[in-house]
Amino acid sequence: MNTYHRLPVTFARGEGSWLFDINGKKYLDFSAGIAVNCLGHAYPPLVRAISEQAAKINHVCNYYQSDVSIAFAEKLVEACAAGGMRNVFLANSGAEANEGACKIARKYSLKKYGPGRHTIVTLRGSFHGRTITTLSATGQDKFHKDFGPFTEGFTFIPGGDLAALDKALDEKTVAGLFIEAIQGESGIVPQSAEFIEGAARLCAERDILLMFDEIQCGLGRTGTFLALEQYKAGGKPVKADVVTLAKGLAGGIPVGAVLAGEKTAGVFETGDHGSTFGGNPVAAAAGLVVLKTVNDPVFLKEIGRKGEKMMATIKSWNHPKVKEVRGRGLMTGVDIDCEAWPLLERGINKADSGSNGLLMLSAGPKTLRFLPPYTISDSEIEQGLDILRELLDS
Ligand SMILES: Cc1ncc(COP(=O)(O)O)c(C=O)c1O
To answer: How much is the pTM?
Structure first.
């Protein structure tokens, strides 16, 4: 179906931070499949784990358990413990994980307070997925047409606006607040420390669930396993009630996760939720490799360092076409004074002129977005930025 605006390239294989098209041309990957190929392409331990698991057992239905899926779920909860997580439901995608989060918020509130307290507050500019309910949760008007009626019970406030948040978090009608610590799709927009601290305080006072969509900004991308770990409330690390993850969680094999904290861990009871493929053994085997590699203090610190290097280099150019550079870790947004899409196309076309191509993303009409694999080397960052500079110069 005609759903995607595609760039003119077809890929055949990848290796590390590089992709090769069907004609053998080479492209440096600053996109990582929109934060999915977090360990680069054809990462040998990941390839091994997927192949070995596929040769053992690739699916077990939910009547039974699978050893590797249990191990993955345990490691994932352990990795998210600093964010307050206690247990997990495994799904297949981000939208599906977010559907689970909305269901947890609604049931938590219904059981404790009765009907009518089901609204979920999200932020303007947010992106939470493409199902009817996650589109309803997405705070961008362009997604609220053509497919109605949408799921009721979502309201939006501007990020950073504590007065609007205070007003929106009505304890009689609101079940949860659902936020991205750093909005990805709408331009790499980090929430301020004051806003998250205020949100955590108001949610705790009113028993409204504090839920983080970490699908794009989580999983180490910003230099901590969860982006929310970089925020404090009342001098202590922020603890969430619900966290969702997906994208890079199995390095390119589909998986999603909704994690619950102390208040919410017991909300789902037998029969409340399910998924045929969620937590599939092959995805779980891949996910174990990702967790083992990424949830390591040295590895996480390196992500932060590489991201700083990337941003500092772009800023140091003082390029007339660059208006602002934002981000955290390997999640960078660059506002430019021209349309981003033609630049993405020219990044691809570079490969026609005997040089390497550069794969970039956009996030809004005039914002470039870089989400390279965590395994990218310093020299690859330099090579990619040299190509970017040439593109901006010409
Ligand atoms: C923050 C955020 N939430 C949810 C989603 C939806 O994830 P999926 O496409 O896996 O359903 C995305 C995808 O871009 C995202 O960036």
So the answer is: 0.98
